[in-house]
Amino acid sequence: MRPLRALFIRLAAIFSKDRHDHEMAAELETHLQMHIEDNLRAGMTAAQARREALMKLGGVEQAKELVRERHGLPLLEVLLQDLRFGSRMLMNNPGFTAVAVLTLALGIGMNTGIFTILNGAALRLLPVPHAEQLLAVSQTFRKLNGPIQRNVRENATFFSYSEYRAYRDQNRVFIGLLAYAPFVEVTLGGAHPQKLLGSLASCNYFDVLEVPPALGRGFTDAECSAKNASSVVVLSDTVWRSAFDADPSIVGKPIVLNRTPVIVVGIAPPGFQGSEPVPSQFWAPLTLQSSLMRGQDRLGDDKQSWLGLLGRIKPGVSAKQALAGLGVIAAQIDQLDPGRITTLAIGSATLFSVPEERFALFSAGGVVLFAVGMVLLIACANVSSLLLARASGRRKEVAVRLAMGASRWRLIRQLLTESLLVALLAGILGSLISFWSAAGLMHFLQSIVSPGNWPVALNITPDLHVLAYALGLTLMTGIAFGLVPALQSSRADLTLAMKGESAESGARPRSKNFLRSSLVAAQVAACMVLLLAAGLLLRGLHRANTIDPGFRMHNVAAISFDLTGAGYNDQRAGVFQQQLLERIRALPGVDAVAQASAVPLDDNHSVTDFSIPGREGHILTEYDQVSPGFFPLLDIRIVRGRNFTEAENQTGAAVAILPESTARRLWPGQDPVGKTIVRSSTSLEVVGVAKDAQVSFLGGYGELYSYFPAGPKEQLGLRLLVSGAGANAPTAQTLSATVAGLDPELAVEVVNLAGNLEPWRTPGRIVSALSGVLSVLALLLSSIGVFGLVAYVVSRRVREIGIRMALGADKRDVMILVLRQALRPVAIGAILGIACCAALAWVISTVLPSDISGRFLYGISPLDPVSFLLVPGFLLSVAVLASYIPARRAMRVDPMVALRYE
Amino acid sequence: MGDKKDVWQGTLALMVLKTLQALGPLHGYGIARRIEQTSGDLLAVNYGTLYPALLKLEQEGYISSEWGTSDNNRKAKYYKLTRAGRKQLEKEAREWNQTTEILARFLAPGKEPA
Questions:
Q1: 10 Å Cβ neighbour count for A483?
Q2: A254 with A393, same domain?
Q3: Are strands A592-596 and A215-216 parallel, antiparallel or unpaired?
Q4: What distance lies between CA A662 and its chain's CA centroid?
Q5: Is residue A267 part of a domain?
Q6: Which candidate in A249, A275, A822, B89 could, as Cys together with A883 as Cys, close a disulfide (CB 3.0–4.6 Å)?
Q7: Which of A6, A9, A60 sits opposite B47 (nearest CB)?
Q8: CA A880 from chain center: how many Å?
């Protein structure tokens, strides 16, 4: 209490300094006079009395200084003084200030913008009341005896319905525990069938989240009491507005989802999107699962991972206690399945709550932030250089201050305050830029991600995290570019500087020159890493754009529809498929029609395992189930053996066709035709070998692949491939209409096969675009750095060059002299950069699974010689150009003028 | 200043408070004199220690000050004890007594601490 009061008084006292000084002087004077009077009274002479008093009391000025220090807050006063002085210095050098602030603001802005997006995705809590009380629960397991059997939907860390009920009913740590199944796609029936993406939710969903629907109600417990107990749904505000014109009377009325009539009981509040980054458009009770997804019973399957859990913790219970409490229940569940060991994890509830998703997001975000951070560092190096150059001009000022008794620490503090001021200005401007860059980046990501995907919605308005990040970054920047020049210039040699000795002579500038050279070397190294990365990615993108996937893509349309969701069974689906096949075949302009369960380069390939008689172990393979027309339609040649027959297709016979590379790996040097593989205890005969085609992964990454015939059991999941060239080839509209002619309520999706390439190029495109922008920025900043260094070197050596020329050196010699000095740091930086990048590439290629790096490089080696030769060449030529321009000044030096200089 | 001891910083505040309690409102010189006399001229109080201590006490609210006139008609700043200062004095005096008592027991000859 008392010290605090004193602090406030001292704070206030800063502003009444002068008055206090006067009072102090008066008080000390009185004290002195009283002492002298006493001494006189004691019989001393006037002079003696005064002398004794002064001696006794010690230095008046020192006392005043001591009192002054106690009076206000000296640290703060000094800071204010530094700030005043610093802003004056900056205003006197508007050019320097503008350049420094702008470069840094760009770096800070981009950095903060990217962080804003990461923050919105993974740090920001769900926008529900008291979100800090919400915990996301996830699980992983292992089994002591053999593999764990789980049917995984969406996420391996999700729970089964029975597990959810155990945790919900037995836990003592949560007020409520909700479960949700995200990404449920349904067709909204009506005049214009429309696809909706929503969630299934436990009936306490809106209660636990404390988000009551804006209109109507949430779910009641009774609605979840039994399977299909009650067909109700809550719609999102967006769907309510777009599909139902915000009609409030919709509440209480039935709508049709996947041919199941459900009653709308509520409308979620505007902006509420559930717990996933992709906004949910409706919420239906978990118990409605089998009505909305026909043919699947997830509720009764204890080995199905399909539910995410969120719990609202009881007041006073810590996260650790919650985890322990849930662990008891997990142990009980484990006892039902001997050998199983479940590990639970809990985390705060954000849009990305699942640990592995968060890890992937943070790694990707980390790489991007690292790249942007490098650009920021390059910018810092430039500002450092500028400061160092300016320091030469301020040598005299610094020397005077040192001579007047300022301590070195005091000077460094003064210079750092100036740097921090610049950084602060840049931080403010950068924060403004970050609003724009985050929104722009979000927009860019949305537009570049293939349009068929559901849009992601993140909250990217800045919050405390973002502000703290921007502030931290600003301070670090200020110190990063300010510290070295501050240390350097506060070490001025007093006598030299005071004598007005120019910066061009003496020993000091040599180390300053060394510093600047190191800065340039560092810049070039960082720039080289970024450029090489961009070069590799661009090569990958080029490969992706020009690659021949080994099958025909042009003038082929793929038609997909959801028969399962529409309530078909195998038999009716077979009839439907047959009818559709005939109708489409009859359309004018159609050359060929084929069926396949997976459309090439679509993301719906399945994985199965088979074994080879006489060999140990299981072999994993991706596969497609296709009709005989598939191979000719896509121009995939059968190189050995034969195609499936129509009869095999009708019955789903036990035969298989393998691609060449797969066959070669399974039976090297042998004829694969006639060999047997065993898939789920059925022996299949390999009847043919097809030419390799990258149907599942563009660029190919060495996975095994198999084709099986589509049988009567696959009819529900078959899609249609239609080829037709020429003017009268059917349009997407015609094809949709043909499907609608058979079943008007079926939601149909028609894509051009070539369009399936887009999602494959998208990640590469995003990353190349980003790294391209960054590396251009880095190159520009580094060129400025090199330019500045050479200009500085030339200006410093004007006299020496003049002497050399006077002694007979020609312009070429001078040029070489200057360039050699300038390009040495560039060469060192370049070599460092190449080494760094090669090491990074090696680490990436060994650490990253091939299917991830394959998404960016498409088979280009991370040590691609083309990139590693071209990029350094390019960077070096830019550096030479950047040094040539200022070096020309050296050639134009007039010896007479140079020698008379100063 | 010869062999006189400088005042130990922490104790000066207590001495000032005690002085003001004993003599009522007093100026800086008076306080210094009184402390020196009370100590039997064993202590020396100079500006550099006295005035920062007075300022600190004032900032903490234990004493207050106002300008007044001395006996010799000289303008001087008079310090006086506040209510908080009185309490603080009691508290510190008690603590100080306790400390010295404990130390005294330790230093008393022949009585080794158990």
A1: 15
A2: no
A3: unpaired
A4: 36
A5: yes
A6: A822
A7: A60
A8: 35
Residues A41 and A84 in one domain: no
Could you tell me if A46 lies within 8 Å of chain B, comparing CB atoms? no
Q: Is A257 in the same domain as A317?
A: yes
* pLDDT bracket for residue A638 (50, 70, 90): very high
CA-based nearest residue in chain A for residue B56:
A70
- For residue B52, the chain A residue with the least C-alpha distance is A67
Q: Would A585 be classed as within a structural domain?
A: yes
Four-residue CA torsion sign, A647, A650, A654, A656: positive
Question: Would you say residue A37 lies in a domain?
Answer: yes
> What span, in angstroms and rounded, lies between the C-alpha atoms of B70 and B30?
10
Cβ–Cβ contact A30 with B under 8 A = yes
Average pLDDT estimate for A764-774 = 78
* Domain end call among A711, A746, A781: A746
Tens of pLDDT, residue by residue over A91-143, are 887 887 888 888 889 889 888 988 998 898 888 888 889 999 999 999 988 87
CA pair distance A616, A678, nearest whole angstrom: 12
Q: What is the pLDDT of residues A394-441, one digit of tens each?
A: 777 788 888 777 778 888 888 888 888 989 999 999 999 888 888 888
A163 and A302 fall within a common domain: yes
Residue A614 tokens, joined: 């006489």
Residues A113, A86 share a domain: yes
Residue B77 and residue A60: Cβ atoms within 8 Å? Answer: no
ipTM (interface predicted TM): 0.82
pLDDT over threshold 70, residue A212: yes
Contact A6 B27 (CB under 8 A): no
Residues of A in contact with B28 (CB under 8 A): 27, 30-31
Q: Look at chain A and report how many structural domains it folds into.
A: 5
User: What structural domains and CATH numbers belong to chain B?
Assistant: 5-107 (1.10.10.10)
Query: Taking CB atoms and an 8 Å cutoff, what residues of chain B touch A4?
Result: none
CA atoms within 13 Å, Cβ hemisphere of A88: 7
Residues in chain A: 902
Q: Give yes or no for residue A890 having a pLDDT over 90.
A: no
Cα–Cα dist A536/A860, whole Å: 8
Please check the confidence at residue A504 and state whether its pLDDT lies above 50. no
**Domain extent at residue A140:** 131-349
What is the mean pLDDT of the segment spanning A299-321? Answer: 90
Of the candidates A125, A852, A151, which has an alpha carbon nearest to the alpha carbon of residue A463? A125
pTM: 0.69
* Number of separate helices (H) and strands (E) present in chain A: 28, 23
**Would you give the end-to-end CA distance of chain A in angstroms?**
63
Distance, CA of A400 to CA of A393 (rounded, Å): 13
Chain centroid, CA A258 distance in Å: 36
Q: Are residues A68 and A81 in the same domain?
A: no
Q: Tell me how crowded residue A98 is: count the other CB atoms within 10 A of its CB.
A: 12
B contact set with A (CB within 8 A): 1, 27-30, 32-33, 44, 46-48, 51-52, 55-56, 59-62, 70, 72, 74-77
A601 lies in the same domain as A697: yes
HEC-encoded secondary structure of A711-752: CHHHHHHCEEEEECCCCCCCCHHHHHHHHHHHCCCCCEEEEE
Contact flag A28-B47 (C-beta cutoff 8 Å): yes
**Are A108 and A47 part of one and the same domain?**
no
Q: Which of A349, A381, A414 is the last residue before a domain boundary?
A: A349
Examine residue A742 and state whether it is found in any structural domain, yes or no: yes
Alpha-carbon distances of A540 from A449, A537, A603, A858, A864, rounded to whole Å: 18, 5, 20, 6, 10
- Hey, which residues does A721 pair with through a beta bridge? A558, A594
**B-chain residues within 8 Å CB-CB of A67?**
51-52, 55
Nearest-angstrom CA–CA distance, A164 and A137: 10
Task: Phi first, then psi: give them for residue A251, nearest 5 degrees.
Answer: -65, 125
Which residues are A608's β-sheet partners? A621
**A9 touching B, CB under 8 A?**
yes
